[in-house]
């Protein structure tokens, strides 16, 4: 149980997914975390044995704030955005900043989501903790999201989102020299970048939606899809309307309860991060 001397938002912690914030007696932010169940996760800090660093942090907690989210995947996104914006002490101490994981969106004719470590970004002259990209960074990336505490959760999230927002990590034939469709085209998870059967401007709209999602703006995407579906129906483009309706349904009904694993939350202070090799990407 949470000690009675700790102030809790609304005097109760809900059994919902979301992001939690720990503050000390001086109102300094100590740590930000995500949870499938805020109640279970927060209680675990006070009822289970912890390592030295976590125990040190827990001993300083004086106030707990939280934000509930409709889905676990939105908790994952919110956590990363809040860590980047607020840089809490114990999130930074989890590991060397340079080994944090980031989601980058490349600035190419057909942009791609690529996972990179902080030290990989620094190697190409980009400060991953900057809130905005510099002019030189914008030549390489449209956005850089993170840090993320779990490579497994981020990869799962991207795969879940792909059911609603059909992003691709392919490159067009003029880059690869190949014209055969990739595996994901055959299973409906690539819009045809590898065969260049989707126009650049149409694919850019998909990437814009992916960016909006990782900015925490799912409601904005839903409104866009609703407008697009109504317009397609009005213009008698029923196949397009059905396609958008399917994407909208997938976005609104993401089944992500297992997105945050036991290792993500209990082993966060010593997790080994894995990312994609970026050699040759630029």
How is this structure best described in words?
The chain contains 13 helices and seven strands. The chain has helices spanning 38-47, 52-58, 72-86, 89-93, 118-123, 135-138, 151-161, 173-176, 183-186, 200-214, 218-234, 238-252, 262-266, and strands at 7-8, 18-23, 29-35, 63-68, 101-106, 113-117, 141-148. The chain has a domain at 7-94: GIY-YIG endonuclease, CATH 3.40.1440.10. A hairpin with a 5-residue loop joins strand 2 and strand 3. With 282 residues, the protein is α+β, with helices and mostly antiparallel strands. Helices cover 42% and strands 14% of the residues. 34% of the residues are buried.
| Beta-strand residue percentage | 5-15%
| Number of E-state strands | 7
Q: Tell me, briefly, the overall form.
A: globular
Broad structural category: alpha+beta
- Stretches where pLDDT is under 50 for at least 5 consecutive residues are 270-282
